[in-house]
Amino acid sequence: MYKAIIKPLLFRKNAEDAHHFTFSWIKKIFNLPLLKPIINGFFSYENPVLEREVFGLKFKNPVGLAAGFDKDAKLIDEMAMLGFGFIEIGTLTPRPQEGNPLPRLFRLPKDQSLINRMGFNNGGVDEAVFRLKKRKTSIIIGGNIGKNKSTPNDHAVDDYLYCLETLHPYVDYFVVNVSSPNTPNLRDLQEKEPLKNLLTEVKKANDKKKKPKPILLKIAPDLTVGQLDDIIEIVMETKIDGVIATNTTIDRSNLKTAEEEVKAIGAGGVSGRILAKRSTEVIRYLASQSNHAFPIIGVGGIFNAKDAINKLEAGASLVQVYSGMIYEGPGMVKSIKKGLAEYLGKQ
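^ Dihydroorotate dehydrogenase (quinone), sequence as received from the core. Prediction below:
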């Protein structure tokens, strides 16, 4: 039904308009009393073989919703009904910001990919907390945090610490995002010394809490081997809990979409099918070079169970989806879980 009817209708709209349209209808339909049990039943699929414990948290299944879809925690309860094992909100910043000018989200159907230059558009961390206080589901929530565009890099740590402090009682783990290509100079924070200093301060603040939460780092797929070696060293040295690999890529060399069309779109990070190979390579490198010293959440180009299995075999403990759901529909989550259960049951 999604591919035959809903997707063609959504793809007639501007990509960001379609996103907001989908949001509003999910909010309406998923909360209709008569439809709630039907929706839950349709998307529900759990199997004990899917359960796993990672960085001290117990996940009912390893398939999560990546950051970016529900930045402001507006659809936690509704998205939980699709069968995710966890949901990551954000990227959130201390102060609300509009993000980059429109248009800023584009589809590349020939590549089953997206280009976005959203620019951390969000209502601010305090607004997200207001919603999190009201959520009904107990699904595991990750808080993806960043800095405001107007905050200079030498004061970036203050933004991350504010988000950590504000969100701490309401999320189960944190993700330090320094890898978006859409905030000017943000990726400079991935350099060895700035990153080490940032993570050290975030970890120190977290450790002072009565109940510290896992801290993860989200990295770009465009890092060199030397930079990935630095990431391993920094993760080990700062003793954070894991890595999310990867964010969107600025590499457009393998796109099937016409070069003129891509140039006309302009700047932005690419996600979706085009990212699958590189994100898996990064996962494999981190896992093998670190001797599996820390958990990795694999994200990038997951459209089906085989894609998820590739990430797990490369060394990921959990996976996340986003762009694949735009092309395959919400039933993709259940399909991936069934395929994973069959695969894991044979191990």
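The chain has one domain: 2-345.
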